[in-house]
Structure formats: structure tokens, C-alpha cells
Amino acid sequence: xxxxxxxxxxxxxxxxxxxxxFRSTVFQVLLILGVVAIANYLFTNTLHNLEQRGISTGFxxxxxxxxxxxxxxxxxxxxxxxxxxTFLVGLLNTLxxxxxxxxxxxxxxxxxGVARLSSNWLIARIAxxxxxxxxxxxxxxxxxxxxxxxxxxxxxPRQSLDLGGMFFLNNRGFYLPAPVFEAGFNLVWxxxxxxxxxxxxxxxxxxxxxxxTGQQFHTVYVSLAILFGLPLLVFLAAGTxxxxxxxxxxxxxxKGGVTIIPELMALLTALSIYTGAFxxxxxRSGILAVSHGQTEAAYAVGLRPSVTLRLVIIPQAxxxxxxxxxSQFLNLTKNSSLATAVGYPDLVAVFAGTTLxxxxxxxxxxxxxxxxxxxxxxxxxxxxNWYNKKKQLVER
Amino acid sequence: xxxxxxxxxxxxxxxxxxxxxxxxxxxxxxxxxxxVQCGVTTGLPGFSGPDEKGNxxxxxxxxxRAVAAAVFGDAQKVKFTPLxxxxxxxxxxxGEIDVLSRNTTWTLTRxxxxxxxxxxxxxxxxQGFLVSKxxxxxxxxxxDGASFCIQAGxxxxxxxxxxxxxxxMSYTPITFDxxxxxxxxxxxxxxxxxxxxxxxxxxxxxxxxxxxxxxxLPEIIxxxxxxxxxxxxxxxxxxIVRWSLFAMLNAEEYGVTSKNVDKMAAxxxxxxxxxxxxxxxxxxxxxxxxxTWAASIIKQVGNYGEMFERNVGQASALxxxxxxxxxxxxxxxxxxxxxx
Amino acid sequence: MNVQKQPGPDLPPPASSVGVIGWLRKNLFSSxxxxxxxxxxxxxxxITLVPAFQWAFLNADWVGDSREACDSGxxxxxxxxxxxxxxxxxxxxxxxxxxxxxxxxxxIALMVPLFIEKFSRKGMLAAFILIVYPVIAYYLxxxxxxxxxxxxxxxxxxxxxxxxxxxxGIVAALPIGIVLALGRRSGMPIVRAVSVVFxxxxxxxxxxxxxxxxxxxxxxxxPEGTHFxxxxxxxxxxVMFQSAYMAEVVRGGLQAIPKGQYEAxxxxxxxxxxxxxxIVLPQALKLVIPGIVNTFIALFKDTTLVLIIGxxxxxxxxxxAFSDPxxxxxxxxxxxxxxxxxxxxxxxxxxxxxALERKLHTGHAR
Amino acid sequence: xxxxxxxxxxxxxxxxxxxxxxxxxxxxxxxxxLKDINLNVAKGExxxxxxxxxxxxSTMIRCINRLEEHQQGKIIVEGTELTDDVKHIDQxxxxxxxxxxxxxxxxHLTVLENCIIALIWVRKMSRREAEEIxxxxxxxxxxxxxxxxxxxxxxxxQQQRVAIARSLCMNPSIMLFDEPTSALDxxxxxxxxxxxxxxxxxxxxxxxxTHEMGFAKTVANRVIFMDGGEIIxxxxxEAFFSNPQHDRTKLFLSQxx
Lengths: 396, 340, 366, 257
What we know:
heterotetramer, B: alpha/beta, D-Maltodextrin-Binding Protein, domain 2, 2 domains, 5-stranded mixed β-sheet, 3-stranded parallel β-sheet, 16% strand, D: alpha/beta, 6-stranded mixed β-sheet, 4-stranded antiparallel β-sheet, 10 strands
């Protein structure tokens, strides 16, 4: 500030080093230098160490033959494929368990979150106990428990639990019939696609009609009827071109059908139960965040409870729930890396584990692994920021 | 402010840790620390594992003790880092350990592109299969379509794939991080067979609830020379580890044992023995060690035969016979270059 | 048209709406669907809880020193009892257990006044716990001075290791988290960018890869021949990871401080650091204590991951006891014991943080 | 104060009454909140309910559209008795509009959407029709220009006027006001009261829980004083304020006047 407030002259300049702009510039330059220096220090050390110890560098290893088998692969894979392929196999396995886990955890979470607010005392108590137990026990312990204490003591394949001759459960996995699509089943797919398109346009038409005439339409029921009915009709008309391949005991194991390996089951169970408890809390807090006055106001203008829930409560609750939900999804995806504790072949187990060990290129492998998780989490958090901005309540 | 924090942290770290800046200096570094840092398994009976009192014992452990005895004249000056198969090479590469003695198979890739050197072979092994007796299988060739419990990051994984590919059979690998988990899963029936180096199969069988219910199949599907590993580029250290092992083999060949070593040093007429025990010849100079380096190994750890019998042989629970690991002069392939 | 009425007495409510029957009607059988739900849930509880209770208590074996003592068909708590010391202290020498007990006892004794409303020097005491106590605890645990036998970190284990990891994690992450949070809210673009990148990086990767990196790869980044302790390296990984989360918690607190507080502080002529240190941070940190407790709970549970890099925390110690040939087949008991131990810690802490939240009338999630 | 110039409706006995409450009791657990309430409200009548806090005023009017459940006695609104029957509840709620102390606007919907949501979903109108009605009532409460804004962007007084418009859109025959001005700053109270007076002048049947005694004197036909869950005294406004009979009424009036 100027030294003499009465002078009216332009404020006198302070000494350079006392000006905030100068200070902050200097500080930031120093910070950059510091960061660069540290990065450089670590980088040269690493390079020097790698060279010194004759460790190969670069990503050439990705095209080398892997030579080891993987328990569960979603894409064709055998020992003759490359390390690049093992990366892909691991990544897909991670995405599989994360995707299924997110689905199940959301389901469990919403049911339990609503149950916790139930007017039925017993139901509310059960939900509370579930939430308080499972979110306060380390996830790793839960995974190990399901795997070693629950699934492994199941009977051997020859003494499998037989569920109706079609489903079998033993300590090698859960065996389900696999659908075999015969010629002609394509028609059913086409019918399904048509049904989806029809339902889409019908929904639009119904909404427009309501806006214009006020008449309401049972969109949900009619949509369901079309979605299931049309493909079913085509399916019957085409002469039921679908058979089921039943799992059967051949040699050491069950063959045929779809197998869910116990490693996946344990990981999935633990992940969805653990994350479900957190989602339940998020759902509960979201619903509670909508004040009771909103429900009362909606009732007071004559809205039915179901409409109130759909148009007033849920849209507001979701604003609170979605951000928490996405961060739980993110946690679940990151936590799926605990797969390595029970031998489920996810990205960390297959790539940062076996591949790293066979190639010895820790820096490249770990960088790629972290890169994958970073990409996933940045994508999700970008989405979340976008969503938050869009859904933020407009206020004065 | 942050920069300040970071630099002080960096300075603090630099001050807190001991630093040696030059290659080929493992020996100096070890001497400065006062102990050898040795990577071992997280627990494999006969090879390495802590007993109830927390003392490490086993063949691999004794190999490290021999190195410590050679360097310091004291076999106790060694610290053990338990490592999983997945961690072991990175740990050695990064300098976390000085020597890796963790029933590790000597292969071309590991020797060439991992930046490692195998210093010798302390156990000749081969991969085999452990199956449940009530499976009724007599040969590995009957295992088409079976599932196998394996440990991640081992040559076992690769050999298994090769063997089944060569024989046109299919298999399912179930891969775990530690051998404990593989045996637990095998015991629970998660897989039909457990495959690993044969020596380990015997060791792991003890960990089953009912060891008698499982049997080792006769086939050996691979060569698994196991031995201590060091980093590439430090020949001095490489020689020390290599010759510590050779000293034990030579000692067995010349009949020097932990019991008679002092007497032999004083009264033996055999020039081979005298050179081994530092009484004549090159002594410890070439290795940069004291003259009695080999004598301390033999006195404190014993010769190869003693080490073998104590840990995995007839004096142990494993009761593995010498087989390939007998001296060359007794029908085996353990052969050490002469000390002269 | 004035109408008047003399006040009547309070009447008891109709019998059907109060008492046990009223409660049951209102809470369990208020409608047909509710009745069905109640009955189904009740049946499920009956078929799961009763056998579980019988297994865990009625048919359980509690005393003995070998597996022969376990013959009642229920849980074999003998297994846990025999190994209890190991679960608590790992491989720490038995003669030195008192040092661990003393360290934790001291900590509890120091913490007690923090929970007493009337105690006025909470700030001083908290500073003492955060700065001086760790030094004392370090010497107690590690020894090597003051006539205490040196105990290598590789012998540390069990619950005490879990607590040490979580404790160090939270104490060391707090200052770094504060600096990062201030950086993220700074007006200087580069400072902000560096903080954001740091925070988002650590929050975006799984802890297990961080631990793996710190346990085996760290020496690769440092000058050749640099050695330091495996436990220390795990701690560095945990602290880095944790400080990013802590930064976000603290940021929530900083955002909750009204702008007026900054303006008032500046109007008094306080510099940036004085504004932060004297006015803003004390308020913000108090606000985020529940958040810090929640982060601590998460960290406490996450410490189990060190078993993957070969450190023997509580879970790893228990897990390793399963492979003792003399005690095969008692893994359920072990897991239940571990779960119960973790649960007691986490649940009581979460209750504490909820109580605080209610007291402070503020959530940590902002 | 002066009489309003609207015609005074007849105090009908039981026939023709819009709302009849007979011997109503309500308990919260063991707590007896409403004791033997008897009240008849004729068409076009405007009643102000006052009393100390916790006297059961709000609870009573909330019972009328079943936001609270009564346990004994009868509530009959336009000939329909309020029971567990969802159909009856729906029917009554369509006839009864309500304005809350804290406005309770839907923050995620615009002002206009707040007004038309029930028209669309309850009255099954087309959107265009509904919007016309919505705008009409927003004009009536003098804030048509705010139609596209969100409630959070309005002042408290404006929000309360939107809430009134929202209720009016449903064309109710009875309006309930639950302390509509007590959450507002003084300068905003007037704009809301003006709207309410305007509404009263149009002949709407109104039940107001309020402490605005000026309002009571201007528009009310009757003032009801409640205490301890009971109607202690009711009278025409002038007589009520100038000559309260009951001790508790006197005490209350002396405190707020």
C-alpha cells in the first residue's frame, strides 16, 4: 500500500521481494526445480541401476511367448501366446470381476440401504447388523474366509451337490448348463433387437402423448411384455432352436456347461458383500438427506407414494448417492487386485505377478499395471465431476 | 514449503540409510553392514524356514551361512529375508538382498536377461507330481484334463505347460502366491495334483492333514538345478558365493568334516586338504577373504554331505536319498573344481 | 359465539397402540406383507444363528493345550488360546513383551485425558502424542538404547505390528496430508497442479501395487547399495498412500471454514501462514476429526495387505498358524478370531467417529 | 379491526360443513397430543389457529390431510371420512391444499415444474394445459417471471408464494397453512400475507396456523386458541382479542401482543 494515504499519488512500489506476485513466482519456480530434481534423481538412479545389473529394459517382452497357462481366460489363450496377451487376459479378468462385483454390490447395497430404513423393525435390524459387521472387517480377511473356510471344504467333484441334475456345486466350482444356440436362433436375437427399438420408440411416443393429452400409459408393463414376448414368440415359432449343454462328470472334473471357478466366487462374494455394506450406507444417507418435508409436500399435492418416490425422492437422493456410489465402484475395482491372495488370475496376479517374474522387468510391468488402474480411476472421477456439476442444485 | 519438506525428506532419507556408490562393491558393503542379507523361501521344510524359536534352518539357509562364515568367519552373521517366488528376483536386482538362496532353478533367461548369475548348484532337482492315492493314477501320462496347483512365478509353471503340450494333453493351472497355499488347496481337493520340484513335494506332503494319502508319481518332467544367485557385474562377490559352495563339496570329497577339520588342518598330509584349509597354496587372497575362509565354513556349517543329511537327508523328516546329489565319485553329479 | 372448554385430563392411549402389543403391531406386523417379511426373516435368523451360537459357544472347547482337547464338535478355541501370544506379539522375544505392553499402555494412558471434557490442555497433549510419544515408542519397540535389547523389525508381528503400521501411517500421513490439502487450495497454479497430481496418483492405484513397489522396487530408484528396513519401506508406501486420502479429508475441513474467517484474519493483518496456522487449521482440523478417524479405520483394515508382501501382521500370523501340521483344519476358528478382533477395533472407532460427527454437526464428506 | 366486506358464511351445524372433526384423539406413543378435538368448518370460512408451541396446532391440521394419523374420533372432509382407505386419502388430498412453514418446494424442479407436477401426475393433464394453469397461478401470486428458475434461486417470500401457487394449481376447496410466515424475514412476511389476504378475499376456505395477529384480525371469521392438545377457546376475532375468556388465552395474548 502507499505510504501516505493522503498524497493521492500512485502507490509507491514495494521492494521486489516483498511483492506477493514475486514471492509466489519464485516459490513456484523453486517447487518446479525441486520436483524436477527429485524426478531426475530417481530416474537416473533407476537407469543406472538397471544398466549396472544388466536388466533388460523396454517393452519388447510383450511380444515374447509367455509359456504358462492361465486358469480362466475370457479370450482365446494358451501357452504359445505372448506376454502382451497375458496382459489382456489379466485385464479382462479384472474387468470381469469388477463388473460383476459392481452389479452385485449395487443390488445388495440398495436392498440393504432401503431395508435399513424399513418400518419393519426386524428387517431394519438385520440390515443394520449386516452393514455394521461387514464393513468393519478387512476385505482381505473376508476373501480368505470365503475361499479357504467356506468354498474349499465343499465336497469333491464326485460327491458334488447336485441341484436338479443341471447345476453342480463342488470345491472346483459352480457348474451351470451352457446355452447352445442352434441355427435359427439368430432370428431370436433379431426379434430382441426389434423389441428394444420398438420399446424405445414407444416410450418416446408415450411421453409425448402424456405431455400433449395428459393420458398416461403403462409404459413399464407394456415394455416388459414386448421385450419378453416378441423374442419368445419368435423363439417358439422358429422351433425352439436352443439346447442346453449340461455339465457332466468326465475324468477328473465336470466337463461342459459353464464353470464359475471358486476363486472367482470367493472374490466376488467378498467384494460385493463388503462394498454392498458401504453402498447401503450411501443409499441410506441419500434417502435421509431428502427431508421429510419433501414427502409431505408431495403427498399434500396429492401425489401417490409410488409417484412421490419416483419423481421427488429418488432424483434428490441420487444426487447424494451417485458420488458416493462411484467412489465405491472405484474402490471395488482397486480392491479386486486382492485376487492374488486366492489365485484368481486378475491383472495383478497374472501380469504384475507371473509375467513380472518370468521377464524380470519390474519397472515396465508395474508401470503398466498402475497405468491401467490410474486410467480407470481417472475416467470414473472425470465422469463424477461432470455429473456433480450437472446435478448440482441451482442456488442463489 | 513443499519443496522444503521434500528436500528435507530426501536429505533425511539419505542420512538415514547407508550408501555405497560403486559397482562390484557387494563385499565391501557386506563387511560394512556386518552381515550377509540372504533371500530365502517363506517356509519350505528342509530348505528354509524358521523353527519354533525363530532360528532359520535348511539347505538354502546353510548355503547362506557358508557365505557368512567365509566372509566373517562367523556363520551367524547373516540375516534372512523371506520372499515369495514372485518377489525374489526383483528383491535381488534391487539390492535388497546380497544373495538369493531360495531353491531357484538355473535357466538361460534368468542368467542372461534378468541381470543375475547363478553361482552353482546346491541341489539337483526335477519337477514331479503329487497326487492323492485314491485318484488311482500311476503315471503322469494319465493326468489328461486334470487340474494342478502350482506356485506363481516359478519354472514349474512353464515346465508343466511344456510337458502337456508335448504330450498333447490338456490341463488347468491353479496358481497361488505361496507354496503354503498350494498345499492347502491340494489338501482340500481344489486340484487333482500338486506339481513342483520333487524335493519340495516331499516337504509339502508333510504339511498335509494325512500325508499317507498322497503319493509322488515316478515321472520327472524337467531338469531343475537349484542354486544360489547373485547380481551380475560383481565378479568378486560371485566368486565368493560360488567357492563357498565348492569348498563344502571339496571338503566332503576329501573327508573333511566339521568334527575333524581342526585335526586335519594340523596333521593332514594331503596337499588338497591343506590348500582347502588355507595351510598352503593360494589361501584366501584371490577371493579377498581370510586364509581360513574354507575352514570356518566347514567348521561351522559342515561339508556338503553333512549339510545335506542334516536338512533333507536321513537325519531329517524328509529322508531324501542323495541320488543325483551324491558326489561324482559316488555315482552322483555333484562335482566341484579343485582348489589350487 | 364464544366457545370455551376446560382442559381435560391426559388419557392413556388405546391399548392396541402402545405396550408390547402396540410395539409388535407397529414394528413387525403393521400390514400383511410386513407380517410375511417378519416371519421369513425370523425363520432365517433361527436357522442360521442358532447353529452358529451352538458352534461358537455351547459346543465349543475353551481349555487345553493340544488338539486332543477339541472333541465336542464345536469351535476349537484352544487353537487360538495356545497361539494367543503369537497372534498378539508375533515373533517378538517373550522376555520383552513388557515393552510392547508398556508402549501401548502408555499410549492409552496419554489418550484418556483427550476424552475428558474438562481437560483444558488437549492441544498440548495431542502434540505430545504426535511428536514425542512416537520417539518413546520407537525405542521401546526397537530397543538398542537405554539398556534395552535390540529387537529386529523382522521379529515384530501380530496385532502389535498391525497397530504400529496403522499408527505410524496415520501420524505420518497427517502433516503431509495437511500440506497437500493447503497446496490443493493454493492460489498458485503450479503448487495446485503438483498437489493434485500427487493426490490423484496415490488415490488411483491399488494399495497392493504400492506395497509391492515399496517392498521390492524402492531400492531400484535409490543409489546403489542403499539399504533400509523392509518394515520401514512398507510404512513409506502406506504413508504415501494414506497422505493422499488424508489430504482430501483435510481439504473437506478447509472448505467448511467460512470465507469470513479468512477475511477476518487478514483484516487483523495476519500473514498467510499465520492465518492458516492460528485461525483456519485449528478449526478445520477439529471439524475433520471424524473424517480422520474414518481414514484411520480404513487404514487399519488395509494394513492386512502387508501379508501379501510377507510381513506378519495379525492376519498373516493367524494364516501362517494354519499350516502348523499339529493344528490343521482350524482355519474357521482363526478367521473368526481375526474378524472379531478387527471388528471390535473398527466398530468402536466408527461409533466414536459417529458420536463426534453428531457433536460437531458436520459430516466429513463434502 | 374492521370487518372484511366478504359475505359471512352461515355457521352450519353438520350439513354443508367442509370439514367436520368429531371427538378426535391422537397419541405419540404414551403422549396424548390431541384431546377430544371437535371442529366444524363451513364453506368459505377462514379460521386462524393460535396457541403456544407444542399445543398441537400443526398436528391437528396435519391430521386433516392425513400427514398424521389420528387414533380416535372422526374426520370428515367434504363428506368423505378419512380412514385407512387409500382411495379416501387420495380424494381428500386432492381437495385440500397445504402450505408448509419451510415451503418444501422440490429443489430439483423449476418453479413451474413444481406447480404442474401434480396436475400432470394426478389430474392427468397434458403438459401444455398444465403449464397454462401453472402460469396463471404464478401470475396470481405475482411471480410469473420466475417460472423457469429453481427454488434455490428465489428469496424465502418468493418461495412461499410459489408454494401457495403450487397448492392452488390443484384447485383445492380448502387450504391449510402451517405457520407459513414463521420462517421468513420481516420484510418478506408482508408479501406472503398479502397473497393470503387476496386468497381469502376470493372466498377460499382456509385454516391457518399462524401467530400473525394482524392477519387474524383482518381476515378470520373465527380464531381458535389451542393449548395442551385441546381447543381451549374459540371466538370471533374482535371478541377474541378484546375479551379473552380463559386464563391461558389471556396469558398467551399478553405474551405475544
